[in-house]
Specification:
This protein has two domains: 109 residues, GMP Synthetase, Chain A, domain 3, CATH 3.30.300; 249 residues, Rossmann fold (3-Layer(aba) Sandwich). The chain contains twelve helices and 15 strands. The structure holds adenosine-5'-triphosphate (ATP) and magnesium ion (MG). Adenosine-5'-triphosphate binds next to α4, β12 and α10. The site of magnesium ion (MG) has 5 residues, from α4.
């Protein structure tokens, strides 16, 4: 082992570590907080992240270690993390010449819509799959997360089997593409029709991974297909995604609407905003024009009125909607003239027309023009504030 490298040489070497979201070197971005050379060639590098929960920590951990560990006289490299202060974020924003920084993988998802119901079997998954396809047909970038971990049905509705999704070099899971929609489901990771028995922490962990470790990329809408009822999944998601909105699906019958009201109460309890109601399985119309209100009428309208949210649409019962769902092809793309397809396309346009949520971004920090760059941290603050992650 030769002479111990200088901090300047280490800094030069760190110029090869690129922030995959900002696409620049962490040296250039001023994200290298400190470099300390200890005894026996042990080097401590502290990297400042834009957010504490930054999902690309693992990437920095490996890239920094790779860049430093090979240098002369370096026996080991510890990577620590802290978070940029507001002033540092402001300086970074100025440097990047834009108003906001991405905040992890969901930062580039503009709208998150959870599709839920009080009761099972009302058509949540069928509507989620078709609504996503309809939004895509309107030129939107759309993802679907199947959060029904116990009764996943989204893979089947898109004709996707249990293909394993690929993993990117940044160790993110890449969603599978179907009909132009990015799809993620627990079903991709299980043997066909295997049962999932997760509860509590396991469930929480799986849902967190679906949101943080999946490379959703830039999306206008992420639709989340919920399991029926008001249980664990909805609560967990509400906790993880406070910015999400809720679409409630109900059938037209008064009893279903009562159960749907419970879903609405749950959404209120966890402070999720309800974007609207969709009434599904409305009157079936024969080709000769005869109407059969098999599940009654008016439930969706009444629920929407009660909740003071829009009734986004009424989707009739049609045979092709059921057949195409079973066949793995979204009806809205295959038979757009079917009355159910038309109703779903109408809902998609309504969803687009609703005031979209702004892109989730870091709060913009005001910086007066020509302000001096932030002072370097005081020596006491220079101590690593983050934790040393276990080596991947
Ligand atoms: N408007 C409709 N016309 C005809 N068939 C429909 C309609 N809506 C849903 N279906 C059919 O009803 C069945 C149940 O729908 P789906 O699986 O989407 O309901 P779900 O609410 O997601 O159920 P779960 O609560 O079990 O998740 C499916 O076979 C689906 O194809
Ligand atoms: Mg379902």
């Amino acid at each position: 082992m030769g002479a111990v490298t200088s901090t300047e040489e280490i800094r030069q070497s760190l110029a090869t570590v690129i922030d995959p979201e900002l696409r620049r070197s962490i040296v250039e971005l001023d994200m290298v907080r400190s470099i300390e050379i200890g005894e026996n060639g042990v080097v401590d590098v502290t990297v400042s992240l834009t957010t504490p929960g930054c999902p690309i920590r693992g990437h920095f951990q490996r890239a920094v270690t790779d860049a430093v560990a090979g240098l002369d006289g370096v026996s080991h490299c510890n990577v620590y993390f802290d978070v940029l202060s507001d002033a540092q974020k402001a300086a970074l924003q100025q440097k990047l010449g834009r108003a906001s920084l991405p905040e992890g993988t969901l930062a580039r998802v503009a709208n998150i819509l959870c599709v839920g119901s009080g009761k099972g079997g009302v058509g949540k998954s069928t509507l989620t799959a078709n609504l996503a396809a309809a939004l895509m047909a309107e030129g939107k970038r759309v993802g679907v997360l199947d959060a029904d971990v116990w009764g996943y049905s989204i893979p089947r509705m898109y004709g996707l089997g249990s293909t394993r999704p690929p993993v990117s070099p940044e160790r993110k899971i890449i969603p599978l593409g179907a009909y132009g929609v990015s799809v993620m489901s627990i079903g991709f990771f299980l043997e066909e029709d295997a049962a999932v028995v997760w509860r509590g922490p396991m469930l929480h962990k799986a849902l967190t991974q679906f949101l943080q470790d999946v490379d959703w990329g830039e999306l206008d809408y992420l639709l989340i297909d919920l399991p029926p009822g008001t249980g664990d999944v909805s609560m967990t998601l509400a906790q993880l995604l406070p910015q999400a909105q809720f679409l409630i699906v109900t059938t037209p019958q008064p009893t279903a609407q009562k159960v749907a009201r419970r879903a609405a109460q749950m959404a209120h309890k966890v402070s999720l905003e309800i974007a609207g109601v969709i009434e599904n399985m409305c009157a079936f119309q024969t080709p000769s024009g005869e109407r059969f209100a098999i599940f009654g009428e008016g439930g969706g309208e009444e629920l929407a009125r009660e909740l003071d949210v829009p009734l986004l649409g009424r989707v009739p019962l049609t045979m092709p909607l059921r057949e195409h769902a079973d066949g793995g092809r979204p009806l809205v793309l295959e038979e757009p003239e079917d009355p159910a397809a038309q109703a779903i396309a109408h809902i998609a346009r309504g969803v687009i027309a609703m005031a979209p949520l702004p892109l989730a971004t870091l709060p913009l920090v005001e910086v007066p023009a020509g302000a001096a760059p932030p002072a370097p941290p005081a020596p006491a603050e220079r101590k690593p504030a983050g934790v040393s992650l276990p080596m991947a």
